[in-house]
Amino acid sequence: MAIRKTTQQRANRGANTANMRVCAVCKRRRRLSSFPSDSTQKYGRSYKCKDCQREIGRERYHRYYHRNIEETRERSRLDRKERPELPAAHQKVFKAKRAGKLMRQPCEVCGAKRTIAHHSDYFKPLKVTWLCHSCHKKVHLQIEREEHL
Question: Which top CATH class is 10-66?
Fold first, then answer.
């Protein structure tokens, strides 16, 4: 004997499926919040869940790293040899933050809370500008453009 669903049960089922999506990789049905934002996709979310994307990224990183391990190490050695003041400045900022002498501040451009220390002069390692990732990227793009002119 078939059991008829109440109107409330049908409404709940519709609400649940509206917030759900099937991952194209693992084929599991998950909430939309389990998918990273992607404005180019339907519902504004990626078609791969966060777990699958994380795993794919890890695999891609390890594949690249192991294929180019010597080249990567050589590039790092050359960078440290050409500009030894960079790692030294980063180390001094790290130690000053740990000792409480330097406190992380909001982004000086947009006010975001998650920031990184930007050095305009690596020979003055504790004189930093606190910038969020996107503002820091913009500053470096602007510096690169000025160098190419």
Answer: alpha beta
